[in-house]
Amino acid sequence: MTLEPLSLEHVDELAQAVAEDGLWKRWYTNVPAPEQMGDEIERRLARHAAGDIVPWTVRRASDGRAVGMTTYCNMVEEHRRLEIGYTWLAVSAQRTGINTEAKLHLLSRAFDTLGCIAVEFCTHWHNQQSRRAIAGLGAKQDGVLRNHRIGRDGTLRDTVVFSIIASEWPTVRLSLTEKLARAREQAPVA
User: Would the pLDDT of 107 be above 60?
Assistant: First the structure.
């Protein structure tokens, strides 16, 4: 897995990745439809140029395909914190270790390079898969922001907030590193 700075060159690959299983149709997610991918990338690039976010494309090492996006957002430099969010992965990349590896890279940069004291993750209350994945990283649930956002269909979103704090980072890093090592040992030999 590699993380590449998001660019318009990724439009076609990411449109194909999101089309695998109609990921964008899930009412509790905010994933762009294939035909909206160019607009979504342009939106993220504009926010990046404004200094609001840092977006990446997630590329699978085994076949070189772009399989998703992830972002640093809600960055508050004076409080040394940020959120890792707006993440989605193609169905074929889920439960493969790609998310774990991407988060290990992002968390390492946040804590070890940027000096963050806290990294947050947020998801929809009804997105059980995402909640399990975030908890599986070692993040702890901080709380629920009720009626936090209005969804694209007009429903009210309760947002579940998780975080990892700097004092937890060494243990979380060790856990993620071991999970990746076990996954590699169990991977089929090509």
Answer: yes
